[in-house]
């Protein structure tokens, strides 16, 4: 059922201060959406989904990065969990581990927003897509995790393969996962498909070998991202101590769909904990949604919204 979702309005930049940040006002906006519960194989509503997610230890929200309504609903997820009194930690693929210090400084009020942004390499549409969530965290004093591996390190692996990790200088070792596993499983097959598939039978041997080597290097970089984000999430969970709550991690859907990628690696690190998966799925027509057998495996909830 289509419902209203509240979306956090963007707050003005703050000057550095040690005092608590002022309250950020919210604005209501209509966001067309429908929610499908894959376990019940039935449509539900946004509020029912949030009531369930509030009981999870970790929630992975897989997004399509370029969809504005997706980002509005992502902010609404945090607002809905806040309304239920859930103790929250926000985790983001969109910030890398070496940006944690400036991110913490901004949240604490010891850095201006301009200083924070200059030091943290935000994504191009940070202001519209992710700033509302960071501002919400700042207002409510939630921890925010810069979860991802620095892109320069992932780029080195995509160019040189796993051997690039053996040459890491000491100052970079803290930015990558200590436990790095990269099995050739269903996730690998899905990754190969995303990369364009295996070399064709008519391709000469050298071209086939080169293409396979390229896929292998890029897959290692993908695994590095997944393992590092999962380690960051698990580390944040361990820091909660006597303040149990829910960690909400926002990432590209490929990293979490089908319980693979980052999702599988979080579950490996947090056995026995509930890791819920939400897949954001922009669509052209909310009144004609066909949920097939493959979609049922994507996650616990599918959130359809108009693209």
CATH class: Alpha Beta
The portion of residues forming beta strands comes to: 15-25%
Into how many domains do the coordinates divide? Answer: 1
- Silhouette: globular
Looking at the overall shape, the CATH architecture is 3-Layer(aba) Sandwich
DSSP summary, beta strand count: 10
Strand order of the largest sheet: 4-3-10-9-5-8-6-7
The overall average pLDDT, rounded, is 89
CATH topology: Rossmann fold
Distance between the termini: 17 Å
What is the tally of helical segments?
Answer: 11
Helicity, in percent? Answer: 25-40%
Give start-end ranges of low-pLDDT stretches: 1-27
Q: Work out the radius of gyration.
A: 20 Å
Elements, N to C (H/E) = EEEEHEHEHHHHEHHHHEHEE
Structure description:
There is one protein chain. Helices cover 39% and strands 19% of the residues. By secondary structure, the protein is of the alpha/beta class. It has a single domain, classed as Rossmann fold (3-Layer(aba) Sandwich), CATH 3.40.50. The strands form 2 sheets. An 8-stranded mixed β-sheet has the order 4-3-10-9-5-8-6-7, with helices on both faces. Strand 3 (33-37) and strand 4 form a beta hairpin. Helix 7 packs antiparallel against helix 10 and helix 10 packs across helix 11. The chain is globular.
SSE topology sketch:
Elements: E1 5-8, E2 26-29, E3 33-37, E4 42-44, H1 46-53, E5 58-63, H2 68-83, E6 88-96, H3 100-108, H4 113-120, H5 126-129, H6 131-140, E7 144-148, H7 151-160, H8 163-166, H9 186-194, H10 205-239, E8 246-252, H11 262-269, E9 275-283, E10 301-306
Parallel strand pairs: 5-8, 5-9, 6-7, 6-8, 9-10
Antiparallel strand pairs: 1-2, 3-4, 3-10
